[in-house]
Design a protein that fits this description.
Pectate Lyase C-like; 146 residues; 1 helix; little secondary structure
Amino acid sequence: MTDLTRTEVIKLIAVATKPLNLVGVGLSKLDLHGLDLSVANLKVANLSGANLTNAMLKGAELLGANLTNAKLNGANLVNANLKVADLLGTNLYGANLNGADLSGANLTNAILRNANLRNADLRGANLKGADLSGAKVENTILEEDK
């Protein structure tokens, strides 16, 4: 797994002509606040402890990504794929997760206060200890239709 710096990520964003491929990249504890990583492919990337405050991750591919204890407060994660991602203790305060796929994700002790979870798929997600106060949950999918 390759580790990158904030400067290297910014350079990659600047020259990207197609969706940015960051599959399996190590971005642990990096300050990536405010960056536009829309439609980036971050499958199984290590973003543990990263600062992604107010980052643009609309439509990003985060399947199986490690986001433990990351700061995603205010981030735009509309239609992002966070399937089976590890979001243990992650701060998603005020994040926009409208239409995001969080099925099978680990959201144990995550902060989801005032988050937009409308139309999000949370089937099989672990929400133990998660703070959902003030979260918008209209049309959120919590379990399979029987």
